């Protein structure tokens, strides 16, 4: 539940920062594209993790997620 709280907090910068970066003509398309990719990730993420859990178990999945997050934050 706590993770969901923080993940939903990532949408606030999207709608406050996007108007500063994108010109008016591209603003709605950029917001829609960003929202679409986040929804696709939200749909495919549990399926991928569930499939990986069958072979890697908890420790392997946890390590892989930490590695992906570390690379993404770097």
From TrEMBL:
Q: Which GO terms describe its cellular component?
A: plasma membrane
Cellular localisation: Cell membrane
Q: How does it sit in the membrane?
A: Multi-pass membrane protein
User: The Major facilitator superfamily (MFS) profile domain covers which part of the protein?
Assistant: 1-74
Q: Gene3D superfamilies, per this entry? A: MFS general substrate transporter like domains
Q: Keywords on this record?
A: Membrane, Transmembrane, Transmembrane helix
The organism's superkingdom is given as Bacteria
- The chain's coiled-coil residues are none
List residues traversing the bilayer: 47-71
- Write the protein's name: Major facilitator superfamily (MFS) profile domain-containing protein
Q: Which organism is it from?
A: Streptomyces mexicanus
């Amino acid at each position: 539940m706590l993770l969901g709280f923080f993940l939903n907090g990532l949408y606030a910068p999207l709608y406050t920062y996007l108007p500063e970066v994108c010109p008016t003509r591209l603003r709605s398309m950029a917001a829609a594209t960003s929202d679409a990719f986040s929804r696709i990730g939200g749909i495919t993420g549990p399926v991928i993790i569930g499939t990986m859990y069958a072979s890697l178990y908890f420790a392997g999945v946890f390590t892989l997620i930490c590695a992906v997050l570390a690379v993404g934050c770097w």
